[in-house]
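Notes from the 1:1 (GR / supervisor)

We went over the backlog. Supervisor wanted to see one worked example end to end before approving the batch request, so GR pasted a single chain during the call. The sequence is below; no edits were made to it. Supervisor asked that the structure be written out right there so they could see what the output format looks like.
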Amino acid sequence: MKEKKSPFIRQYVRASKSPWEDASTILLLADVIDKQTKELGFTNYIYLHRDSVGSVLGISISQQLLAANPEFSERYLEDFEMYAFLLIHIEDITNFCSLFTAEFEQLFMLKPNMFFAAAEDSWLRLIESS
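Structure output shown during the call:
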């Protein structure tokens, strides 16, 4: 039986357009057109970019999200800007990732709500200590 491709995680088969040497992405946010079929739209999206061993390199955001958040200057964010952007959208990200709970748990060993609750606290501390 052929394995169904997931929109949640994608390993590259060709070079990425990002500024990083990334090997895969995890979709943290997209427009949900149909929850039942998990049909997605990509007007608003956030991708987490990872290298070949899974380390986080940064996030890429859609032009629409960049326009809605003028305090950020570009579509590719890393370090504190990345954490700040993720914190602004953490509720939407948590809800979106909950559509892919099984896949999320395979990657992060926690359910999305538990992971992002802990991440929120950790990211806030990182930003406050900078």
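Supervisor's comment: The longest helix spans residues 112-128.
Batch request approved.
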